Amino acid sequence: MASINDALEERLLQYLLEQETKKNWEEWLQWLADLDCPLSFEKPLQIPNRPFSFQTWLTACEQQLIQHPEWQARLSTPAWLKRQQIIVMPNVLKSGENQIPGIAEIGGLNSELARLIDQIHTVQQRLTHLESGSSQRSLAPAGQSASQQIPAVSVPNATLPVSGLSDPLGRPDLARTLERELQMLNKAGDTKGAPNSKADGDSADPEIVALKEAYLSYNRWCDQFEEVHLNLQEFVNGTLRVQSSHQISFQQFSHRILKNAKKVKELEHVLESFTRLRSGGIDINLVETPGTLEISNSATD
């Protein structure tokens, strides 16, 4: 149930952050005036023109508040702020996933563990057949896949529909990412055991390379995303694939595709999801998809 708990934790965090009170500089001053506060504050140059949190305002006024300990005590007391209907979130909640162990790590660790279990079973089978003098082609598919070793989380269609995704807490990008990661984990066993699977003997032998060290063409990177059921086309403007491309790193690919993002934040979540799913490396000998083959053929005509 780790993935469902991850989703709940992230949505709870987002829900709490959305409740935070934010005002622009003039609105914060008006709020003080309504409380009959006699103090006046000059707006620092670094303060943005958009609404910002109470902590940002308090930091900007800290030096001026030193001379007024009574108001300094009030403005730094959570209970008093709550009575004034000001909701303040601790900065530790807003500083990102790295400050909250477990929220983003469990999904990546689960995926890595699944990959390692598959590799262990594959090595064990090869050693067994080598000792018995059997051909490698007689190896049975790795039916004891990680998805069977670790109970897969089934997600009802009513919770995460295939189309028209929505998140009741206002995070459609998160819902998309979670759905695809769960689909990938649930379908891993079926894909490896299918008769027409890419793991058949006619396919090229897998060559696993660390994500940071892999160099592929732009379209081949698109193939890698499709392999884990992440459809990049719905997150970018215009045509996803290109006519030709030299080999580039994943960082270069990410930088290039973000230039055409419909919504940068959503696409960044998808890229992060791919990084977690392929944290153990990618197969650079992955069979080309029909889309890649068509573009390659048209480029050579």
Describe what this molecule looks like in 3D.
This protein folds into three domains: 69 residues; 101 residues, no CATH class; 98 residues, no CATH class. The strands form three sheets. A two-stranded antiparallel sheet has the order 1-2. It is built from 14 helices and six strands. The radius of gyration is 26 Å and the shape is elongated. It has 301 residues and is mainly alpha-helical. Helix content is 51%, strand content 4%.
| Rg (C-alpha, Å) | 26 Å
Task: Give the fraction of residues assigned to helices.
Answer: 40-55%
The strand count comes to: 6
Which regions have little confidence, pLDDT < 50, spanning 5+ residues? 97-104, 134-172, 194-202
The helix/strand order is: HEHEHHHHHHHHEEHEHHEH
**What composes the largest sheet?**
2 strands, antiparallel
The overall pLDDT average reads: 73
Distance between the first and last residues' Cα: 51 Å
Overall domain count: 3
Annotate the secondary structure layout.
Layout: H1 2-18, E1 22-23, H2 25-34, E2 52-53, H3 54-60, H4 62-65, H5 69-75, H6 78-83, H7 91-94, H8 105-132, H9 146-149, H10 172-193, E3 208-209, E4 215-216, H11 218-227, E5 248-249, H12 250-258, H13 264-277, E6 282-283, H14 290-300
Antiparallel strand pairs: 1-2, 3-6, 4-5
Helix pairs in contact: 10-13
